[in-house]
Amino acid sequence: MKKILTILLLAVSLTAWGTKYYVDPNGVDDAGRNGTIGQEWATPAYACTRVSAPDTVFINAGTYNQGSTQIVKPLHIVSSYTNGSALQAAIQCASTAGTSVDDNSSISYIKLTGSSLTGTRGIHVGYRNNIQIHHVTIEDFLYTGIFVYSSITSYPTLFLTGIKIQNCTIRNCAQYGTGYNGQIRLQGTDGCDVSDCVLDARGRDAGLNAQTTLK
After folding, report:
1. Candidate ranges 57-66, 70-79, 111-120, 166-175; pick with highest mean pLDDT
2. I need a labelling partner for 141 at 20 to 30 A (CA). Which of 7, 8, 71, 110 fits?
3. Which domain covers residue 107, as residue numbers?
């Protein structure tokens, strides 16, 4: 099954220090390239086989088709992506509005940081069923950690199914009152499983620190 990772930010980093390397949709996964600007690699998975701690890999904006390749190193993605609408996030997993697509994929074992509230939303799931988000840590996004969405109306007729958010830790990602946001925002889901998660919004002012928002 193909897994496609869409990164909407200008650059994200997998670690925080060390030598800088780059991944770009127009790059090439080849041992003859050194991963610098002008010799970028093509996929995050290949970059992870070429670097070691504490190197930094910057991922340029684009869509990355990993195929069946596994990314074998834990990822720490630091994002300053500022979304143009509530239906965009640093990691975007969305289909055409008004559809209901069976995705059967997962996002797992990453840490996603919003650059001290510069990034606005962490993960957006839109119009896709059967997505599991597990063992993910999301910190310091301004509005929302995870936003699952199927309809703009208060009484949706399209409901997403098979959504699971499990064993996640979300800290300081709530701004209730700005578009009804929360650390986890669910809008138009049927039977969503949110379990074994740690939600901590104690860093926000009283009245703005919603843990979850349901519509």
Report:
1. 166-175
2. 71
3. 79-215
* Pair 148, 207 in one domain: yes
SS3 166: strand
Q: What is the spatial distance between Cα 174 and Cα 203, in angstroms, rounded to a whole number?
A: 9
Q: Are residues 91 and 158 in the same domain?
A: yes
- Per-residue pLDDT averaged across 20-34, rounded? 91
- Asked, for residue 73, whether it belongs to a domain, the answer is no
120: in domain = yes
Residues 110 and 173 in one domain: yes
Helix, strand, coil tally for the chain in percent (to 5) = 5, 45, 50
Q: Of the ranges 68-77, 87-96, 157-166, which is most confident?
A: 157-166
Residue 49 within a domain = yes
Sign of the torsion angle spanned by Cα atoms 32, 35, 37, 38: positive
CA distance 64 to 67: 9
Closest C-alpha to 71, from 100, 108, 23? 108
pLDDT tens profile 100-145: 888 888 888 788 888 889 889 999 999 999 999 999 999 999 999 9
User: Are 175 and 141 in the same domain?
Assistant: yes
